[in-house]
Write a structure and sequence with these properties.
Helix content: 55-70%
Low-confidence stretches: 1-11, 101-108
Distance between the termini: 74 Å
Strand content: under 5%
Mean pLDDT: 80
Number of strands: 0
Largest sheet: none
Length: 133
Amino acid sequence: MKQGMLPENGPGLWPERWTEAAAALRDRREALGWSLEQLADRTCIGRNHLIALESARFDRCGAPIYAIGFARSVARAIDLAEAPILVAIRDGHAERQHGAAPAAASARRRRIPNLGIASTAARLAALLSDGRA
């Protein structure tokens, strides 16, 4: 297993574009002869986030904007074209977003009223009924 790879990462588990972007980042860092610690020092990005980036686990960076920001910083530090990496991350997040929830589950969620709206309506109904009595 290469340095920085997470054991649960494997083919078919993550969007293919993520795997390609991660490999580009890792291969370029290794070609420069930099360790993860050296890259962490140069980018001020934590080692665990760097491992996640190089393991195609962009979902472990928090919100997609963080993964994009981290990848941009790394790409700049290792002098790698950042645009293809960032597009791959965005596309991968979109792919996971569209494929994550089955249609029945999302339709069920839409039928359940928001708890805040429901509780506000109940309070308003209680206030109005108290005024009429």
